Amino acid sequence: MLQVRGLCCGYGRSQVLFGMDLDIGPGEIVGLLGRNGMGKTTLVRSVMGLIRPTAGEIVFGGRPIGAMAPHRVARQGIALVPEGRQVFGNLSVLEHLTAFRRAGAGGAQPWTPERLFELFPRLAERRSHMGGQLSGGEQQMLAIARALVTNPQLLILDEATEGLAPLVREEVWKVLARVRQAGHAMLVIDKYVQRLIGVADRHVIIEKGRPVWSGTSQQLDADRGLWARYLGL
Ligand SMILES: Nc1ncnc2c1ncn2[C@@H]1O[C@H](COP(=O)(O)OP(=O)(O)OP(=O)(O)O)[C@@H](O)[C@H]1O
Which residue intervals define the domain ABC transporter in the entry (predicted)? Predict the structure, then answer.
């Protein structure tokens, strides 16, 4: 469904990705791993149309999206839960969900604000609260709900558990397991390798803007040498 081939991009004269490849099939969950600064967020930004690639291609559902504006990429069926959540301080929880609601491609049971309130009971309780009044964990749940209400085919999560208390982090992993059952493809960037192994089918490790390893959760779990070599764990 998503094919990234030979992708090069960066910021001004500083190149970050040097021929990145990535494939995600329908309903597949892929973990993207690598040390800080290796280019994970940059890859996500280029897929979302927020940075222009200088070479290579990005194809989603058979369509080249590498030159599309971010709103058009979103309309193709890709939703991002960005690093740092980026919820709107002056919109209520319900307003976030109604403003971003989109029908999606059909097929699967659509995510509606009401269905999302079942998935996130805490958000249901706070539906009239402004984004700025929520705790970090609640904002993270809202960022995930806001992405799901667009009914994407591919959901990308960039460090969704970062900076959260352990119990809240566990809630996020539980939500991802539920979302997985709903059949969305996902690209998940996260530092908690063991938990990522529990959710993802396959993993790609990136180093200095290139893929250096890819394999199944079982393979990653069994090879702690990889963790040490590429993840510093
Ligand atoms: N807006 C920017 N302008 C210039 N350089 C940037 C910008 N954003 C990121 N970089 C640089 O690009 C490189 C890759 O950053 P990126 O955020 O993609 O890494 P990452 O793998 O997601 O790591 P992290 O876990 O730290 O977010 C880093 O050297 C970073 O300093």
Answer: 2-233
**Residue extents of the structural domains in the chain:** 2-231
Asked if residues 165 and 106 have their Cβ atoms less than 8 Å apart, the reply is: no
For the chain, the first-to-last Cα distance in angstroms comes to 31
Strand order across the 78-81 sheet: 78-81, 154-158, 185-189, 29-33, 202-207, 210-216
Q: What is the pLDDT of residues 1-25, one digit of tens each?
A: 999 999 999 999 999 999 999 999 9
The third-level CATH classification (topology) of the domain covering 2-231 is Rossmann fold (3.40.50)
The protein residue with its alpha carbon nearest to ligand 1, atom 24, reads 36
Q: Say how many Å lie between the CA of residue 118 and the centre of ligand 1.
A: 36
- Atom 4 of ligand 1 has which residue's CA nearest to it? 11
With a CB cutoff of 8 Å and minimum separation 6, the contacts of 89 are 130, 131, 132
Which protein residue has the closest C-alpha to ligand 1 atom 30?
37
